[in-house]
Design a protein that fits this description.
Layout lengths: L4 H9 L21 H16 L3 H14 L4 H25 L5 E2 L8 E2 L15 E7 L6 H7 L27 E2 L2 E8 L3 E7 L7 E6 L4 E6 L7 E7 L2 E6 L6 E6 L5 E4 L11 E3 L2 E6 L5 E6 L5 E6 L4 E7 L2 E6 L3 E6 L1
Parallel strand pairs: 1-8
Antiparallel strand pairs: 2-12, 3-19, 4-5, 5-6, 6-7, 7-8, 9-10, 10-11, 11-12, 13-14, 14-15, 15-16, 17-18, 18-19
Helix pairs in contact: 2-3, 3-4
């Protein structure tokens, strides 16, 4: 049966509004509010509209309107790009409705290594984390912190009918799978990962797309009984965080089959993201004993750890330094 976005709107509005573990801050740079910038943005929007890149066209026309709010022609173009975007999303919904995910078996209850995951990128072995500083005084908000570290989570804006926002999905990406909505879209350098779930806690279904848009994998993680909340593809392995609380853990799945390679101990991964660094995986958890962990990417075993102050939000690495943002402090470690 054809499921239109407009017909699905009551379903979407009835979903729980629980967000992912850490709200994603806006990271859009300030716009240049000059007439010349308005014309430049509009010209870019027209090029994108002609190319069928409706998400880029909307962004360009919106930027043009921000610089010249009274330009009615640009507003008409923005409305046209929005209608085209919604139509392309509906076409993607129809095409995706016939997809059949691979149903995965339940993982072991505790840490296990079925088979070592490949890790072709080695890099130096991390023996310990040396804390360089902890800033728990007055500090900037998350958006400013991310901008100061020249970092942005590689996420696309998913549609949010409750706010009337169509998102910025490229053509061909469906905002729904059956009654499950697209709750997160991670756009990495070589893969795009799509999480579909019953609410915004995380995904039950995870689709992996190649850079050209070809679907490489589509998994049903219902047997895991926890929502998928972050993922990356490295060396043909899908690394996924399961859970949105202090018991969250990480699994490594073979991308071609979904076969479980390993799962980590519980209670290692409640931050909004994790970081891949060579043959290591860096994660963080909150709760009664907040900490950051260095895992072996081949087995999920913990190499080393260090305590944190507060609930972790984001992790990033730059120049052999690990920065961890929590709700009460900013930490910086040297990777020794």
């Amino acid at each position: 049966m054809r499921t239109g976005l407009l017909l699905a709107l009551p379903v979407l509005l009835s979903l729980g509004t629980g967000a992912c573990r850490t709200p994603r801050p806006a990271t859009t740079p300030p716009l240049d509010p000059t007439p010349s910038s308005a014309a430049t943005h509009r010209a870019r929007g027209l090029v994108a509209l002609d190319a069928g890149q409706f998400h880029l066209a909307r962004a360009a026309f919106a930027a043009s309107l921000a610089a010249a709010p009274d330009n009615l022609a640009t507003r008409v173009l923005l409305d046209a790009a929005t209608r085209a975007l919604l139509a392309s999303q509906q076409a993607a919904v129809d095409a995706f409705s016939a997809a059949r995910p691979t149903v995965l078996l339940a993982p072991p209850a505790q840490a296990a290594v079925i088979r070592e995951a490949p890790a072709t990128t080695r890099g130096p072995t991390i023996r310990k984390l040396v804390q360089l500083r902890v800033d728990d005084g007055p500090r900037a908000d998350d958006t400013t912190w991310l901008r100061d570290h020249n970092f942005k989570l590689p996420e696309l804006e998913v549609p949010n009918p409750m706010r009337g926002e169509p998102g910025d999905l490229p053509p061909g990406i469906s905002p729904m799978f059956g009654t499950h909505v697209l709750v997160q879209a991670i756009a990495g350098p070589t893969h795009t990962l799509l999480f579909y779930g019953p609410d915004y806690r995380g995904g039950r279904f995870v689709a992996v797309l190649a850079a050209a848009g070809e679907r490489l994998a589509f998994f049903d993680l219902a047997a895991y009984q926890l929502p998928a909340t972050w993922a990356e593809v490295v060396d043909g392995v899908l690394l996924v965080t399961l859970g949105d609380d202090d018991g969250a853990y990480v699994v490594a799945l073979e991308l071609t089959t979904g076969a479980l390679l390993w799962r980590s101990d519980p209670g290692l991964a409640s931050a909004a993201n994790f970081v891949v660094d060579g043959a290591h995986l860096l994660t963080a958890r909150g709760g009664a004993s907040p900490a950051v962990f260095v895992l072996d990417r081949r087995t999920g075993a913990v190499h080393t750890s260090h305590s944190l102050a507060g609930e972790p939000a984001y992790l990033l690495i730059h120049a052999r330094r690990l920065s961890v943002r929590t709700d009460v402090a900013d930490h910086e470690f040297e990777l020794k």
